[in-house]
Amino acid sequence: MTRHLLALALALCCLSASAEDELPKELPPDLEAAALRSAEATGLAIYRHDQAASVATDAALQLPQFRAEKRVTGWVTEERQGQIVVTFVDATPAALYRIRVINGVAGPVEALAAPAALSAYETGAAKARAAATAAKFQACSERYNSVVLPSGDQWAVYLIPGTTKSNVVPIGGTHRLQVGDAGVVSQRAFTRSCIALESPPEAVALTINHLLDAVPTEAHVFWNLWARKPIYVSTPPNGTVWAVEGGKIKLVERKTAKT
Fold this sequence. Notes:
The protein is of the alpha+beta class. Helix content is 30%, strand content 34%.
């Protein structure tokens, strides 16, 4: 643990020097608390939907017909009464296969006899996903996964770098795109570079210097759950330290401006 905390301390001392733009200001207590709870809830939702798509894909690939399938262009996920329904779609978009995931476990694969119309929710999510994946963004991986979540009367599409390496956390290149009826409304990256955190088996925690927000974000929560290791995050304007562990964000040390 000492080795990793030392690495964090070294990162903190360089916080202000590495900033290219004006650093975010510390949030008022009520806004900070709201931002933390929102990050936790959204990060957990991204993780649950991403994991549901992953286990559903593994289940579908057990079918020879799915492995030979040429029509599938992607998938959408929808939470229904505690379950996450993963629907593989064609270019129409129409449903080809459906799988219900309960507590991270995939149920039987439903192979539809003919392409079926999507629900209104699925249609909106599929269109939002198509708009987001067609947009220009800084890609840090050849393969990306996507999670589409409702966001008011719009959609939030999270683009997540794919990896086959269990000892690397590819947090760099994670993006959120806000999509409305007319297409992509706004987008943001959660890092400024394609940073990837080394996560060898002996590492008990990971560290990252985050300059874009005054508190950890849903991306930090997602990657914490994905890596199954605590992530210590330092944030501006003074290098405040947070621990993201088990999908929860806790303050470790609040730094104040030097006088």
